[in-house]
Amino acid sequence: MQRSQQQFKINLVKSKLTKREKRQLGEMIIAIILTIPLLLSMIPVFPFTYLTNPWLQLVLATIVIVYPGRGYYKNMYNEIFRWHQLGMNTLIGLGTLLAYGYSIYLIITPQHYHLFFETAATIITILLIGNFVSNRIQKKVSQGIEQIVTLKADEANLVDKNKNIKVINTNDVQVNDHLLVRKGEKIPVDGVIIEGIGYLNEAMLTGETKLIEKQLGDEIIGGTVNAGEAFYMEAKKVGSETVLANILKKVQEIQSQKPKLQRIADRIAKWFTPFILLVAIIAFVVQYFHFYPNDLSHAINIAIAVIVIACPCALGIATPLAVAIGTNKAVKEGVLFNNAEVFEKITKLDAIAFDKTGTITTGELTIKRILGPVDNYPYIYNLEKLSSHPIAKSIIRYFSTPLPEIKFSNVSETAGLGISGQYDNQEYLLTSYKKALTTYYIDPSLKAEVERLATDSPILIVLVVNNTISNVLFLADTIREDAKQTIANFKKHGIGVYMISGDNLATTARIAKEVGITNYYANVSPIDKANIIKEIQSNNKTVGYVGDGINDIVALEQSDFGISMGQGSEVAIQASDITIIKPDIFNIYKALVATKLTRKIIWWNFFWAFGYNLVTIPLAIVGFIPPIVGAIVMGVSDITVLTNSLIFYLRKVNFNK
Length: 657
What we know:
Strand content: 15-25%
Strand order of the largest sheet: 10-23-22-21-11-19-20
Distance between the termini: 37 Å
Radius of gyration: 34 Å
Structural class: alpha+beta
């Protein structure tokens, strides 16, 4: 195959044929049309006998070589004289030119030997078919990455010095431009908030399911969605510098990187062509001087067969195509591979450690219980309906049954303090338990009950009525839906599971018990997380670590296999081998399955790429496989690798095994 075919980079293209593909298709069709008469000439019956005319065969073969096959000879020239490294194009070029040139010699002499024009044309035609099919499969694989591009905002609201707004293309945004982001709009580029408060839904890009509150000076990521009121931002990273662009760049890099298996194959291929040429020469000499003395045609026939059948075209596509398809499947499942080593490293995992918050849990708060009079529920519900704080949405969701409508007056919400209002000459306030204790009265029995129950609930919200704490709401992080199943699946594969958290022991123990983790650590600092990973590694275990924040960077670096859960920053991506870009912990298990399956396909492709050579080259040397059959066998090997990869692409993976 041509050199360019080995560069499996992502090109986001439409499903219709490009100009280049149309040209390739046209050349392939021309080669097929001209090669068919050459093949039919081998049938010794009327009317195919007319096709045995040597000058007709010369014309047909010449057109195939000069026009559709020209790229192979150009690359052969480059391999020999520019790159100084003999490769598959050298074998293709020498094999076809040897068959073509010797056939011309037989016409000129003339001698009564079989011409090899059909062999030269068939080799080129089969390679063109393989190229076209491979490129189409590669293109189809690449199109699956387009879903990432849909995250990008097409337009941005540019704000000038007079606060006038102009809608521009996102590509035209410049660093330091001021932009308005309205409710429901995507953040156009990476930047910081300069006015207002943002409540961002980062789930589509970073895996964070909860709304993230962003205040003055906070960084925001392009592609995330503003779920709150409008705010103003200043662009800091545009174009190729944004987080979204870096994700696309990572996808491209993984396509072009070479796993260990491919690097081994490259080292073999470096010496493969010279070795095959030497074998072909030896086969020629042995046949000409020993087995069939002075039979030049037979000896050349054997040499051509050896060269043709050994063409390692399948080797050139075996790994890159499997990696491209595996990467595509992973991205569709919300998994981003950050380097090609994932295919080697993840299969060696003996243990995996999870951070708790944002990884096993969603970071999305839900009400676990409410202490105090039920009669106050309508006040809590209606007052929170007026709040823009993310916690308010969690509280509203708790009240599934309709509650009486209450219209508060003098409503006031202060960031960090809470929301207050008046109704029927009474003052109502929703604020944090900790802040309320310093200012308002609480009944001792209620306080004792809160202290007894609050050991595993990190957030407490209170309703204060006329300076008295009347109700206490217990909110806790939500365990991800598939966490228990994910943990069970890892255990089923013999992988030890650990949880390492900076949270208190009671909360950590409760969540560990719910998801089925027996090995857990609480009250752990970022440095201690790395030390715990190191301790597990000391027991001869290959350890993976799953984290979601900056505080997990040290642990990610210490681990043998790092997985970043929804961090979305470039530093987290660089510190990990895999980034989970969708909010589903089960994707971590999917990553294990997908990479193991990709590795299996790579090995299977290698079996065909090398296996058929081991069997057929000796048969070609002893004359059992003529050149025309060698060309077909070589083509079958290519098609087998392509078909195997296509089946892998079309196969729906069962991740529940």
